[in-house]
Amino acid sequence: MGDEKSFHVYSAPGPLVFKKSDLKCMWPRWKQKFDIYMKATGKDKVVEEDIKIAIFLNFIGDDGLDVYNNLKLNEKKTLADVLKSFDEFCDPVKHECMETFAFNQLQQVEGQDFQSFLNQVIKQAKLCNFECTSCKSSYLDRMTKDRLVIGILDSTARQELLRMKDLTLEKAKEICLSVESSMINKSKIEAKSSEVGDNIDLLQHRRQPDNTGSNMTYNRYQKRNRAPNNAWERVGIDIAEVNKKQYLVLVDYYSSYIEVLRLNSMRSSEVIDKCKAVFARFGIPLEVRTDNGPCFSSNEFLTFAKNYGFQLITSSPRYSQSNGRVENAVKSVKNILTKCDDPFLGLLAYRNSAICADGYSPAELLMGRRLRDTLPCLLEDRQVVDHDGYKVWCEQKVKKQITNYNERHSASDLKPLALNDRVWIVDLKRYGIVKRESGEPRSFVVDTSSGEVRRNRKFLILAPDQMSSNNNKQQVMINQASNAPQDVKVLVLESSYVLAQPNEGNDDDDDEAFFIGYVVTHSHLM
């Protein structure tokens, strides 16, 4: 058998359509395919230029043949001359300014991968004639690199690029591809762990501790105070110290309006005189809330409250959280006094600043008008205060705050204390006996070896021996309930009472349940 020659079939470029609007971009690609075909088949080595031109015209199509017939070429034309003429026809005049403008507008869009954006930048840069023979480095690479830094969508990658002083185009490509890969992996990990995270949140919500029968000092549910109905109805008072100077701070619970007065001393008489001056301007409030400072807990201040006819409520010792409104006011006053060149203008600006969604300021809520300050204001900007709408906004805000607090701190009610219970006082680190419940919310008066003290329920833990004694009392109550008559069914309630109820067959006239004892247990039928 003779030697068999192997034949290779090469695909020729198809006809070029000259009527399309993107001919400028299609012609270079078609010419590249034609060059590849000529080299692959070895026809580029043909000496006769007429044969090369004939092959070109055979592939270019009818539209290209019409263009060729209209070209003005000399008789000794070559394939290179024909290609150059077609270059001028397909892209007659390069508008470098327009191409550069389009290059500078390139931005990576949402969902576009970096490689696609890079190809778009390089392709547009070649149309801008970024060539500089005198430059040490390629001007084209520099412009491409700068466009990548400016146009990349990921801010993390941009910060990494700007951090490098000797950034090159190759380094920019490597960094951008690395950041994009890490972000893709991160999104995949987050997608896989999102379901696990939801299950963990659900488990934490279900396992929130029930502290009703516990002896530990968990956070209690945030107590909701009755919102004041009118301005200057409830006022909080405290003392702020700034630069070794004392200031009396008064804040209205309704409007958050703040009054600040300099104190010459910390005596109760000095504080009372300043309060009288403020009350003479705005009226006497129904309720005043303070801490247990010496100037507020003195007999002189109690007499002042009695003579002026307002109720004085003091916060629990060591528990400033119960008087949070005035504590926030003190913080605002300290910022104004320390940061403002003119504290009076700073205080005026605070009183004119909106504090709610409706745009009402403390001055408008208290006085019904906006105070004139150094900022220009039109008379049309003044608005009538809708107090009903403001109260609704305050109600919704308080509900949201309480919900967030209770969820964030896993708050629940603590076990109630009874008289003569022996408790451990956390901050004093000693035992005491509960004497009575104080008039203030959640406060108890406890008798200790050094005298009586008042503490919030949060700081009181029932003594271990007291817990054991209460358990014995509960067992006695249950035993008494078990010895009830047969025609009586006993229901032990979780609400701390044992009720005996007559059975349906009992003919007694008294069909009401009667109290047997006091017990704390889970509800069950005996």
UniProtKB/TrEMBL annotation:
<dbReference type="InterPro" id="IPR050951">
    <property type="entry name" value="Retrovirus_Pol_polyprotein"/>
</dbReference>
<dbReference type="Pfam" id="PF00665">
    <property type="entry name" value="rve"/>
</dbReference>
<dbReference type="InterPro" id="IPR036397">
    <property type="entry name" value="RNaseH_sf"/>
</dbReference>
<dbReference type="GO" id="GO:0003676">
    <property type="term" value="F:nucleic acid binding"/>
</dbReference>
<feature type="domain" description="Integrase catalytic">
    <location>
        <begin position="224"/>
        <end position="339"/>
    </location>
</feature>
<dbReference type="GO" id="GO:0015074">
    <property type="term" value="P:DNA integration"/>
</dbReference>
<protein>
    <submittedName>
        <fullName>Uncharacterized protein K02A2.6</fullName>
    </submittedName>
</protein>
<dbReference type="InterPro" id="IPR012337">
    <property type="entry name" value="RNaseH-like_sf"/>
</dbReference>
<dbReference type="InterPro" id="IPR001584">
    <property type="entry name" value="Integrase_cat-core"/>
</dbReference>
